[in-house]
UniProtKB/TrEMBL annotation:
A Pfam family matched in the record: Glyco_transf_92
Molecular-function annotations in GO: glycosyltransferase activity
Species assigned in the record: Triticum urartu (Red wild einkorn)
Family: Belongs to the glycosyltransferase 92 family.
Major localisation: membrane
Listed EC numbers: 2.4.1.-
Keywords: Glycosyltransferase, Membrane, Transferase
Lineage: Eukaryota, Viridiplantae, Streptophyta, Embryophyta, Tracheophyta
Name of this chain's protein: Glycosyltransferase family 92 protein
Cell location: Membrane
Length: 539
């Protein structure tokens, strides 16, 4: 009996020892990870361990546009960029200056990526449809080259540019003329004499703009240039023609790829004209230098907004200005090149023999970079000799905001001008910006700035300049200057049926005017105002 008790006691002691050992092992396994985690936290908190994001995002990387209004952006700024996966901004107060394209461009160059180096901009064999852009410009090469190559990237093969002022200087035209598919037409005495004989002067659709200064004069000049461009586009075998200014970029959203060619290829054969509603740039700083690579926020066209959104946020979107947009709101258009075409002002095309069948695109748009630089106030003022009075500016400018801007630029001090510019043009209220972005009135568009930044980083623009110096007058793709006036005259004569004396031409014009409805040219128009929309809804 005593031996039995002794055996029982030793087995119980052994079981108890095993249990204690197991508990100690379990406690050790529990405490060890906790101790390691605490140690790692202490090291990171004291700066002894590098945040892995630091190896991905350089310390001087700029913040993404729009992040300053978001919870992510505010958290990154408050933490100073340490310990946050979203802290990609530097300590500089102007971190948004370079925008998204700066990030894309710098990362591309730092890793040796040249997105467009080796890209063939000069092959146009078997390209369909063939798209031509025409425009009248006095801009600098710094503005024209990015504009031109961006549109080459999205599928435009030919450009017919009517140049004067800065754009007509040899340093600019020598580069442009060396680029395949670019035709330069100078504003010469011969060109003016040719256009003075245009049939347009004997028709009624543009007569409301004749013999008026500034914007009205420009509108007539653009229409006369477009008339010549139609003839040249037909001679070059173009399928589509678009009139575009050098402060406008086509945004081919909605296509299966980011391509204007693909967008127009999908247009039904019975459509003569495609309307692109325009979006207007909404700058967030008053020190923009390069709009194409610094501006990413745009105000949507009312055609792309639900009516209740447009109505409900009209006051906030207008910000005390005369209209929803600062400038025009009726978009631009692409027309299928065909017989009997004519311009219908700078925004539309028409046909002498029929009313064009047109469609309006639901996603694609024209991005209009208007008043993006503070200097735009004075440059517009310097181009016009009108008096800065409310009555006289009506003779010179079609749109109300242009009139106000001209008066301010002509009468105010530079500081007063800058204050006015910040109040009426610059979107400085981040809360309002965020609200309108969430509601869809404002939108962020990065594709153009990324493309242009990629072109710049790839050295395309520098190559164009150096190539022009090495191979002057290497332009191919459109006919030479000497044949332009002859072809335009011949085309007009053919359309008029009779090319004899002035009386026979006048008779032919009267016949054609009976065929053509002669609706007035479409001027640059502001988007519908609140009262206009209310009246149309009630009628």
């Amino acid at each position: 009996m005593a031996g039995y008790r002794s055996a029982s006691s030793s087995s119980a002691a052994g079981a108890g020892g095993a249990a204690v050992f197991a508990m100690r092992v379990l406690l050790l396994l529990t405490l060890l990870p906790l101790a390691l985690a605490a140690f790692a936290f202490a090291l990171q908190w004291r700066g002894g361990m590098r945040d892995p994001t630091g190896t991905v995002w350089p310390a001087d990387t700029q913040r993404f546009p729009g992040m300053e209004n978001s919870p992510l952006g505010s958290s990154s700024s408050s933490t100073g960029g340490r310990g946050s996966y979203f802290a990609v901004s530097s300590a500089s107060a102007s971190s948004a200056a370079a925008d998204c394209a700066e990030i894309l461009g710098r990362s591309a160059s730092s890793h040796g990526i040249s997105l467009y180096r080796g890209w063939s901009f000069d092959t146009d064999t078997a390209i369909t449809p063939k798209i031509c852009i025409t425009g009248s410009t006095s801009a600098s090469l710094h503005q024209i080259l990015p504009w031109l190559y961006y549109h080459k990237v999205i599928g435009v093969s030919h450009f017919i540019l009517f140049v004067e002022g800065e754009a007509a200087k040899p340093a600019v035209t020598s580069v442009l003329e060396s680029i395949r598919g670019v035709k330069i037409i100078y504003r010469t005495k011969e060109l003016k004499e040719q256009q003075d004989r245009s049939r347009i002067w004997n028709e009624t659709w543009l007569s409301g703009f004749f013999y008026k200064p500034c914007n009205y004069e420009l509108f007539v000049k653009q229409s006369l240039n477009m008339e010549m461009a139609i003839v040249m586009a037909r001679e070059a075998g173009m399928d589509w023609i678009i009139h575009l200014d050098t402060d406008e970029l086509i945004h081919p959203a909605g296509a299966r790829e980011y391509s204007l060619r693909r967008l127009l290829l999908d247009v039904p054969d019975n459509v003569d004209m495609v309307i692109f509603p325009n979006y207007e740039s909404s700058v967030e700083r008053d020190d923009i230098k390069d709009p194409f690579t610094e501006v990413s926020m745009f105000k949507k066209n009312y055609d792309h907004l639900p009516k209740d959104t447009y109505f409900g946020l009209y006051k906030e979107a207008t910000r005390g200005n005369p209209n929803y947009f600062l400038t025009y709101g009726n978009g631009k258009s692409a027309a299928r090149v065909q017989e009997h075409m004519r311009p219908n002002g700078a925004h539309r095309w028409h046909n002498y023999m029929k009313s064009p069948n047109e469609i309006k695109l639901e996603e694609a748009a024209i991005l209009h970079y208007t008043y993006t630089k503070f200097s735009d106030l004075t440059s517009r003022r310097d181009r016009c000799g009108c008096k800065p009075t409310k009555e006289d500016v009506k003779r010179c400018f079609i749109l109300e905001f242009d009139r106000l801007a001209f008066i301010i630029a002509s009468t105010a001090t530079e500081q007063e001008m800058r204050n006015w510019y910040r109040e009426h043009v610059v979107w400085t209220d981040k809360d309002t910006n965020l609200k309108l972005l969430r509601k869809g009135v404002l939108t962020r568009i990065y594709a153009p700035m990324a493309i242009i930044r990629g072109l710049k980083e790839s050295g395309i623009f520098i190559d164009a300049v150096t190539s022009a110096k090495a191979h002057p007058k290497a332009n191919i793709g459109l006919e030479n200057n000497e044949s332009i006036h002859t072809k335009v005259t011949a085309s007009q004569t053919t359309t008029l049926k009779e090319g004899g004396n002035d009386n026979s031409q006048a008779t032919a014009r009267k016949i054609l005017e009976m065929i053509d409805v002669q609706e007035e040219a479409m001027p640059p128009m502001s988007p519908p105002g609140f009262l206009e929309l209310m009246e149309s809804a009630l009628s």
